[in-house]
Design goal:
Layout: H1 7-14, E1 37-38, E2 44-46, E3 49-51, E4 64-66, E5 69-71, H2 74-81, E6 85-88, E7 93-96, E8 102-103, H3 104-107, E9 112-114, E10 120-125, E11 133-135, E12 138-140, E13 143-148, E14 155-161, E15 168-175, E16 179-184, E17 190-196, E18 203-208, E19 214-221, E20 227-235
Antiparallel strand pairs: 1-4, 2-3, 4-5, 6-7, 8-20, 9-14, 10-13, 11-12, 13-20, 14-19, 15-18, 15-20, 16-17, 16-19
Helix pairs in contact: 1-2
């Protein structure tokens, strides 16, 4: 069985990028004429096995030699690595891997917050707020937060109205202390529930939304001075 290359190995193999996409009129100002050569004498192997490079239509293609360097076609190399490849003509962007989708925290505003006025608080920080916070060793510009005071423990939650537009949600969670996180949909249905270990590196999960309209994150915090964060929350594109 063929092994898949890591993402970084695939990028290193390209040695640049001979793109197999239409340039379009918008590229006129960035195009430069060069003299390069298709070189059918170059062999590409993966784990010692010779590979045949093909474009999106299945036609065989070859490496390009230019100015002492060898360039491999992005789509062909990404195929060997098991990466999805897309081309955004509007922005002239090669997209490797799956696109993230709709950013929940920056796109939707929390419409309801559940908190204890004395013992717990919750909220949302968006990129437009121009704040940053280090969460699980990474700096973020937007996140959901749930905190208890230094003197007690309580539950907290935030809710979004998604209007039934989405099927899946991928997000990462982190807490400095042990808590239980529950993600709920319409009528309190449980979409996902997680016992979070305090101080553990942030974990990423994907849950089905089943076209729910209401999306609620509910955190049960049982210790004082608890801080829970939700980051990298992406919805699939609207159906």
């Amino acid at each position: 069985m063929k092994k898949k290359l890591s993402r970084w190995t695939a990028l290193a193999l390209t040695l640049g990028a001979a793109l197999c996409f239409a340039a379009g009129a918008a590229a006129a100002d960035t195009l430069q004429t060069i003299t390069a050569y298709l070189d059918s004498g170059i062999t590409v192997t993966l784990d010692g096995e010779v590979q045949t490079l093909k474009d999106g239509s299945g036609t065989r293609i070859y490496p390009i030699s230019y100015n002492g360097s060898t360039y491999l076609p992005v789509r062909a190399v990404a195929g060997l690595a098991g990466l999805e490849v897309n081309w955004d003509q509007a922005t002239r962007t090669v997209q490797l891997g799956q696109t993230k989708g709709v950013d929940l925290i920056d796109t939707y505003k929390v419409y309801q917050v559940e908190e204890d006025d004395v013992w717990s608080e919750a909220g949302q920080v968006q990129t437009a707020d121009e704040k940053t916070e280090d969460i699980s060793g990474v700096s973020y510009s937007h996140w959901l937060w749930f905190d208890t005071s230094k003197f007690g423990a309580a539950d907290a939650g935030v809710s979004f109205n998604l209007l039934g537009k989405h099927d899946t949600l991928t997000f990462s969670y982190y807490s400095n202390k042990n808590v239980t996180l529950t993600v709920q949909g319409d009528n309190g249905s449980v979409l996902g529930e997680y016992d979070i270990t305090g101080g553990a590196v942030a974990k990423t999960v994907t849950i089905p939304l089943l076209k729910t309209s209401e999306l609620k994150f509910h955190v049960k915090m049982v210790d004082w001075d608890t801080q829970v964060r939700i980051v990298n929350a992406y919805l699939d594109a609207e159906a």
